[in-house]
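Running log. JK asked me to keep both predictions on one page so they can be read side by side. First protein, sequence followed by its tokens:
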Amino acid sequence: MNYEQFKHWDKNIFLVDMTKEKSKIFSELTEKWLNKYIKEWKKIWIIVNKKWYSSWVICWDCGYIPKCKKCDVPIAYHLDESWQEFGICHICKTTYNKSWCCENCWWFDVKNYWTWTQKIQEIILEKFKKKSIIIESEKVNSPNKISKIYDEIKSYQIIIWTSLLTTPIKDIDFDIIIFMNADIWLNIPDFNSNYNNFLFLYDTFTKHKTNNFIIQSFNTESYSIRNACKLSFDEFKKNELKFRENYNYPPYTEMCVILYKNEIEDKLFTKVNKLYQELLFIKETGGFKDIEIFSTPPLIYKMFWKYRYNIILKWKNLRQFMDQSFEKLKIFEKWFKIDREPQNII
């Protein structure tokens, strides 16, 4: 059995282990419920997390993934009105034609990787012979916007959503909610990843009247996912605080992120390394031996032609060090961007 069931007095939550169903978009359990509920004309909500057609394409021969020339991110692929694929960078919005052969090895084994809203819509039509509607988060982020598409949402049996509705839509109840990828936040290298992932699931379970949920995950042992399925905020908090204490993250330390950007990569390294060495010198000579200082590229290394690099500082009493260092080194005047209370480090 590839799933666990978490029973609550008014909810059934099924956690599916997708590592045992790697070749499938929909798990066996998901397909079973979809077939049953489509026949019974019950309302189905599928949360896909990502808009458009596919995350990127990958060469199955050499592993090459085409990236945007302006930004260090893979090119995402969408379908236009005539169902033709085109590429776009989700940072700078530059568009690209889809290449059917690898730009690196020139082999023709190039395939789409992962599945987004448009691809799910296509699969549902092909597999279940059922039309669905895609509702993007920006279309339902206010009561006025919801009212404009209310009749359209009500008329469709299957709704594909890109994110969670903060407030359920009045008079529209869903019989089942399906998460296609419950690991979405866990794939982001940030100290708030577990917290964001937990809230994404927990808020869905607690705010909506739906009785049945299917959670597809490649990481079913994650405490953020398991505690959400258990509806246990207290247990999650205990695990999360232990994680943060072990790795010296807030609230156990103060943090500061110093970001530098430059179109010339060598200048970037020179400027960041110089400031890094100056901060280390103040640390050693000023009696700040316990402070952590390290430099690292952010998740997106290049944006809009500019390379990016972070210096991250962590310490229980960081403000004293920050005030002394920033005054002495004139960091603002050197075009560094400083975030004294970062919400993330990506």
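And the second, directly underneath as requested:
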Amino acid sequence: MAIFLTVLKWIGIILLILLAIVLLLLLLLLFVPFRYRGRAQINDPECHEEFPVSVIRENSDVLFDVSWLLGIVKMVVAFPGKRLLSLRVFGKEVWYKEMGQKSDQKEEKKEEPEEEKEEDQRSLSEKIEAAGAKVEKYTGVADYVYRVLTGRCGRRAWSKVQKRLINILCHVGANSWRLTGNIGLNDPNLNGKMNMIYGMLMPFADEHLELETQWDLYRCDLEAEASGQVRIIVPVKEAVPLVFDKDCRKVFKKLLKVKAKLQ
């Protein structure tokens, strides 16, 4: 009997230790901030008569990372490059995802038999009818969602969601950000409108924006960076009251019917 009680005692101690570890991890996840930092750059020092799509694609560089627990855990997203996504723990890479390489070899087109061509022509009308049915179905779904959200209950629910959504966006917004460089739209009229918007933003973003304009040619030579932090407890605190709100739950149940309408 004493041995049995001793075993139960140790099982209870182990369960309490595991429970304490789970609670500790949960508290860390909720209250320790996730810090994010992003940087994007387009290196285009020369001007162009046409919009420099290839230059933007080939000379762009994006780096974004999210760290937790003083950088012990870090997720890094980089583009371009082979590794688009990687997870690092204590500075060591434990997982990554590579970008698939597209094959340059073009498959030779095989001539289709006449019977298959006739079948394709017959099926074309069926495809058009199916597409029309899908458009009609999605239109009906969009009308149903609009009526739910603009109804009396939907308006009350949206007013509650809107306030809390603004609080979440204010919390996750960047603490510091900066955009510098030179941009040109090959049209003095468009560039003038862009500068007008830039001037309107100056009182609010004077320390963050430093842009110059190329008036008569295309140019996109920009560098942007931003950083901030997110505590999971904030969106959780804002979302939990909505879960128990009567109007929000009623609207959510109505919107769940959309899934059945799409099938």
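Observation for JK regarding the second prediction: The two ends are 61 Å apart (CA to CA).
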